[in-house]
Amino acid sequence: MKKQVYIAYTGGTIGMSKTPDGYAPAPGYLKTQMSLMPELRDAAMPDYTLHKYDVLLDSSNMMPDDWFRIARDIADNYEKYDGFIVLHGTDTMAYTASVLPFMLRGLGKPVIITGSQIPLCEIRNDARENLITGLIIAANSKIPEVCLYFGNKLLRGCRSVKVSADGFDAFASPNFPALGVAGVGIDINRDLILPPPPETVPLTVQQFNEPTVGTLRLFPGISSLVVSNMLQPPLRGLVLGTYGVGNGPDQDRHLIAVLKEATDRGVVIVNCTQCLEGSVSMGDYVAGSVLARAGVISGFDMTIEAALAKLFYLFSTGYSSEEVKKEMQKSLCGELTLPI
Ligand code: ASP
């Protein structure tokens, strides 16, 4: 029996065509392009079902309800397929790849998010390879995780970031090795793959509430008033992009007081470094310890996308601020490395 893969086509460059204003999603276009690919009918390829979403998005328009629609769609088709592909624009692909592992609780099959920098309709494109290899991995790998496949690399979704606006090697996972690499063969590093959930655990989908979370990147001279405004209700959780190993301007007493006042009110402030690689370690410098004393908690080596997704998820489950803080310090789906 051929393997069966479900493709959720949400939009993105992969299926776009040229308009006078630049590339835009075109309904029906991807289906036609795929039907013209003899490779997809090869005996080595799985059968697939292409489900085009009613509104195809440039992923810059992706909203939490769209994440939920994707997760629901996977759950509704879960039993019938061996694996899933989510075709998605690259701009917010790392956000969706970070959110879905938290939304899809008890996932035991591969969910592979991919797309391309050049549409399938162009002569030179990266869409063909991403699609074909993505389909093979979704069908055969049995990886019980949400992954991002792009530019020959298979990455854990909640570790991925977009690192290039125009290169084919557009995604990286700076704080975790690639789960797999596609070269002459497709090599999966099985030691890195999360264990599957017990068979008795069903797949459930966690919907996210209205966003009461946000991100803010520090910069030299940032105004404490601006930070204070950001920290007002309804905000409940903030990912603070700090310098180096988690440092901030400890000499700015107003700014530190604003952070402390917010954490005292129960706002969860998570310290994530602006650096692409490495972990937060707030005890290394006074400029970090002061943040910890103001009630800011460590985001360790989480990406900003993953920390935001996790705050979204934890607040949506109804946890109190104290519980959210506690859960933020654990790895829930492989999104962080705890210091030894
Ligand atoms: N703007 C596009 C999107 O994110 C870019 C892409 O798909 O590469 O939908």
Could you explain the architecture of this structure?
- By secondary structure, the chain is of the alpha/beta class.
- It has two domains: 4-205, Rossmann fold; 213-328, 3-Layer(aba) Sandwich (Rossmann fold), CATH 3.40.50.
- The chain has helices at 29-35, 64-76, 93-103, 127-140, 224-230, 253-264, 286-293, 304-316, 321-328, and strands spanning 4-11, 16-19, 22-25, 47-57, 83-87, 104-105, 111-114, 146-150, 153-156, 161-162, 171-172, 180-182, 186-188, 204-205, 213-217, 237-242, 268-273, 297-298.
- It has an eight-stranded mixed beta sheet with strand order 4-1-5-7-8-9-12-13, with helices on both faces. Strands 15-16-17-18 form a four-stranded parallel beta sheet, sandwiched between helices. The protein has a two-stranded antiparallel sheet with strand order 2-3.
- Strand 16, helix 6 and strand 17 form a beta-alpha-beta unit.
- The radius of gyration is 21 Å and the shape is globular.
- The mean pLDDT is 96.
- Bound molecules: aspartic acid.
- The site of aspartic acid (ASP) has 11 residues, from loops.
The computed structural class is alpha/beta
Which fold name corresponds to the CATH topology of the largest domain?
A: Rossmann fold
| Overall tally of domains | 2
Biggest beta-sheet profile: 8 strands, mixed
Strand order of the largest sheet: 4-1-5-7-8-9-12-13
Distance from first to last alpha carbon? 46 Å
Order of helices and strands: EEEHEHEHEEHEEEEEEEEHEHEHEHH
Gyration radius over CA? 21 Å
Average pLDDT, rounded to a whole number, is 96
